[in-house]
């Protein structure tokens, strides 16, 4: 087994240990051959009949393996990584041709072809002569013969275009289950992201009068007087420590945008203009500071974070807020958005130094996989950098860009990096490979709840 595979399996064991400690006794089951995605309690809601339209090919394959795992003699699979091809070779018509190359095998033998949501193909065979499968693999390889991915010698350890698994062999089976479990988690994440993107896009086309300069002032006045304390929501950021221990870094306080829309302007689409809405967020900052500033910061048992505009830092409202905080400023993390920082770099450096002198900690938010290609966040010298998780971080080619990414992490400082928007275990595993141990997101929320129940955070 390669060192890279050993590291991945070790990180998986760490996560399974953490989840076992967090969720033991709460209906969650960690299978000896995978996570609870593979083996489910019959009494759990997941065992109810699902909507077939929502079931991914990856999930169907896991369920198929669940049904045959007691006798895997003669069962093998071939994973065709079309997702690792160059973008021009991943077009739908090429994929359709690749799928048809397996028609002879699937129609004449006990073989099933799975088309994954990332464009990969998986052929599962039961007592199918290898010589009957080889021609189909060769056809697909020839189809993409100009792509560097297909240049490795077929069947060699360097051949990652087509990977064979003998599922009757325990090591191959465990590696295969780990692979498909990861791919299923990625498919679910893609589905969620697609739904989120569609929901976000809907904001731009909400019914009602578009936000424009003529109604901006009136809405701004309403927001200045509206109650927002009940619209403030919380999300924790944590550090996952050895032996399944957790440390709470802070609780981010943010305003529910859907709730705000309904309260201040139900007949106006606030999100139709990004720049005009940005103006409203400055008023929102002042309202949040007024509400949070009423707290007794000396009694806070854990730090909080506030997402503020750069212009808010030097406002009189922030000065008044600081009068409430004073020597407890170390309990407040101020989050600043990348788009705001790039608009006024000089203003950022001044505000950063100003905040640090007062005792606050500064977090740079809004860093994504794309932005990491153009700048190194370490130059901003913030206390924390929140990098939003995205599938762009995952490469289908083992080791691809890892050294470059490791360099970014090292230069920024692993203790400063928080991986945000964490919705799957895969994101945590990816971060652990780079020494990152600080997280925030919906998946982390479930871990935090379980940790609190077990009193380990």
Structure in a nutshell:
With 457 residues, the protein is of the alpha/beta class.
CATH arch. level architecture of the largest domain: Alpha-Beta Barrel
Give, in order, the helices and strands. HHEHHEEHEHEHEEHEHEHHEHHEEHEHEH
Low-confidence stretches: 1-6, 23-53, 396-400
- What's the count of strands? 14
Shape assignment: elongated
CATH fold category name of the largest domain: TIM Barrel
Q: Estimate the mean pLDDT confidence.
A: 83
* Main sheet summary: 8 strands, mixed
Placed side by side, the strands forming the largest sheet appear as: 13-12-11-10-9-7-6-14
Question: Distance between the terminal alpha carbons, to the nearest Å?
Answer: 36 Å
What percentage of amino acids are in beta strands? 15-25%
Rounded radius of gyration (Å): 25 Å
Number of domains: 2
User: Number of helical runs?
Assistant: 16
Task: State the helicity in percent bands.
Answer: 40-55%
What is the oligomeric state here?
A: single chain
CATH class of the largest domain: Alpha Beta
Kindly report the name of the CATH homologous superfamily of the largest domain: EAL domain
Report on the structure:
The chain is an alpha/beta fold. The protein folds into two domains: about 30-185, no CATH class; about 210-455, TIM Barrel (Alpha-Beta Barrel), CATH 3.20.20. It is about 45% helix and about 15% strand. It has 16 helices and 14 strands. An eight-stranded mixed sheet has the order 13-12-11-10-9-7-6-14. Strand 12 (about 385-390), helix 14 and strand 13 form a beta-alpha-beta unit. Helix 1 crosses helix 16 and helix 9 (about 275-290) runs parallel beside helix 11. The longest helix has about 35 residues, at about 170-205. The two termini are about 35 Å apart.
């Amino acid at each position: 087994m390669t060192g890279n595979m050993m590291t991945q399996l070790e990180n998986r064991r760490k996560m399974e240990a953490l989840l076992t400690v967090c969720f033991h006794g709460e209906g969650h089951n960690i299978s000896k051959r995978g996570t609870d995605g593979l083996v489910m309690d019959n009494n759990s809601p997941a065992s109810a009949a699902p909507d077939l339209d929502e079931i991914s090919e990856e999930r169907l394959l896991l369920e198929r393996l669940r049904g045959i795992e007691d006798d895997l003699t003669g069962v093998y699979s071939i994973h065709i990584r079309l997702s690792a091809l160059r973008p021009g070779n991943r077009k739908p018509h090429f994929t359709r041709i690749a799928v048809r190359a397996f028609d002879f095998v699937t129609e004449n033998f006990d073989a099933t072809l799975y088309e994954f949501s990332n464009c990969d193909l998986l052929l599962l065979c039961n007592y199918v002569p290898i010589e009957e499968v080889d021609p189909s693999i060769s056809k697909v390889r020839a189809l993409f013969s100009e792509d560097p991915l297909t240049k490795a010698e077929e069947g060699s350890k360097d051949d990652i275009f087509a990977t064979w698994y003998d599922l009757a062999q325990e090591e191959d089976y465990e590696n295969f289950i780990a692979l498909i479990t990861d791919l299923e988690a990625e498919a679910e994440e893609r589905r969620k992201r697609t739904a989120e993107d569609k929901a976000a896009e809907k904001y731009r086309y909400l019914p009602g009068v578009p936000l424009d300069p003529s109604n901006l002032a009136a809405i701004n006045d309403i927001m200045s007087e509206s109650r927002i304390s009940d619209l403030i929501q919380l999300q924790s950021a944590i550090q996952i420590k050895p032996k399944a221990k957790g440390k709470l870094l802070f609780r981010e306080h943010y305003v529910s945008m859907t709730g705000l829309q309904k309260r201040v302007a139900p007949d106006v689409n606030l999100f139709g203009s990004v720049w005009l809405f940005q103006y409203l967020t400055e008023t929102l900052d002042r309202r949040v500071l007024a509400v949070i500033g009423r707290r007794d910061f000396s009694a806070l048992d854990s730090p909080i974070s506030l997402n503020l505009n750069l212009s808010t830092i030097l406002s009189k409202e922030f000065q008044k807020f600081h009068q409430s905080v004073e020597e407890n400023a170390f309990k407040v993390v101020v989050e600043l958005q990348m788009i705001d920082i790039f608009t006024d770099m000089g203003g950022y450096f001044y505000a950063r130094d100003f905040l640090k002198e007062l005792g606050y900690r500064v977090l740079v938010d809004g860093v994504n996989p794309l932005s990491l290609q153009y700048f190194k966040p370490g130059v901003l010298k913030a206390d924390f950098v929140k990098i939003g998780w995205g599938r762009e971080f995952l490469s289908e080619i083992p080791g691809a860009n890892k050294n470059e990414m490791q360099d970014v992490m090292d230069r920024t400082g692993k203790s400063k990096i928080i991986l945000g928007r964490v919705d799957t275990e895969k994101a945590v595993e990816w971060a652990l490979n780079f020494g990152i141990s600080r997280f925030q997101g919906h998946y982390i929320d479930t871990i935090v709840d379980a940790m609190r129940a077990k009193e380990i955070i």
